[in-house]
Target: Glycine--tRNA ligase
Amino acid sequence: MAQEDVFKKIVSHCKEYGFVFPSSEIYDGLAAVYDYGQNGVELKNNIKQYWWQSMVLLHSNIVGLDAAIFMHPTTWKASGHVDAFNDPLIDNRDSKKRYRADVLIEDQIAKYEEKIQKEVAKARKRFGDSFDEEKYMETSERVKEAREKRDALHARYAEAMQGPDLEMLKQIIVDEEIIDPISGTKNWTDVRQFNLMFATEMGASADGAMKVYLRPETAQGIFVNYLNVQKTGRMKLPFGIAQIGKAFRNEIVARQFVFRMREFEQMEMQFFCQPGTEMKWFEYWKRVRRAWHEALGMGTENYRYHDHEKLAHYANAATDIEFKMPFGFKEVEGIHSRTDFDLAQHEKFSGKSIKYFDPEKNESYVPYDVETSIGVDRMFLSVLCHSYCEEQLENGESRVVLRLPEALAPVKCAVFPLDKKDGLPELAEQIVDELKFHFNTHYGDPKDSIGKRYRRQDAVGTPFCVTVDHETPKDHKVTLRYRDTMKQERVDISQLRSIIEDRVSITSVLKKLGEEIKKY
Ligand code: GAP
Model:
């Protein structure tokens, strides 16, 4: 099945099984805004809990924070967001649609790339086993032409994005004869800069109202609280502050479901250290964060680093952790060595000293910062994309199963009475009442067949199902069914907790991660 189709299926599965709904759907939704349903919120909370505990439980020198979404507007002057948090946009006069100029050009580069891949695939089919891809790439005239066009475009694009040079971006769109996919015309406006922050007003009277922004990243809440936390917590460098919270960006091109939204959630940690040690910590956090992803068991081959060649003016190193989504390797997390830029800017704009007195060096300085920043929603999407699986079974039936990492599954265990008779529902409820204090356990009403109930739990990724049958009142045993293998075994009711708890607890993943981190 084409990856595009797989992705469409994942999106509709999310809606059908209560993971993600379009926001305010009864009013036809709101572009690039989504709501998390009954299963989605559990999965999301588990991701957040795993992240939070990996930061503040596994690291004795990291503490948490929950800063407000609204911040003093000068914060965003100091951080550079008012002047530089822009995307270049362009409108098509016929369709009246707005696009990101850089995305239109990147799509054009991708078209050349696609052309090259198609030529290679055709040749592979033609030549069979004797096909030498490297040689073909060097000798095929059609491939050479497409590569030259792609490389030339890439070079012009990279040059135009320095600054950026808006006229040059427009010229590229004209020269490449890029058409609007809706109107089919090349009737473009000039390229303009568009600030991505949402603004609103605070205060009752029109005169006294103050323009405030919805934060576009959670990081600044940490920077402006650096001194509060350092002093009240008597923190010594190096130390970190972790925060989970909503962020808002008026994305021009919001696409790929929850991958790029206008309201999303970030999990960010700022690690403050002595100047000169930041590269050591940058390398440390690169490894620790990748280990965090890999401990979930979603395949090491599905992750890669993307080191940034072009760095933001405040950074001296940056990398992304990318995950293989159905639409290619995409950024899920960024690790940035931000130097002393943010704290120094807030020191300058607030006029207050944000220096750290180092008792060992007997001097004061502005600490350097290494940031780890991951989007909860992108993490959620990567987990779902990896877990979604359509299986053909031996008996000719098929099933859709979410092979979620067990510790992240919304429901860990579902308990079913085989039917309504002989006190089976009451017995099943008793088992739920015992297990629910240890992990998320659901009762499954006997109105559907047992097979249907298993399929429904497979579709939401429940790792364990327990069936109470007519033998249970006599022998106190139940049938335990495993999601991934569909293996069933008869176990004593008293064993259920110990069999399931360890496998579904976030603690067991954290222990694995803790062992890995000790090596770094
Ligand atoms: N404080 C640094 C920062 O915000 P970023 O690369 O702009 O850096 C960090 O964002 C992470 O936030 C990204 O790796 C991504 O996971 C998530 N993210 C950013 N924009 C997003 C959007 N529009 N929708 C969903 N997630 C987003």
Summary: The domain at 408-504 is CATH 3.40.50.800 (Rossmann fold).
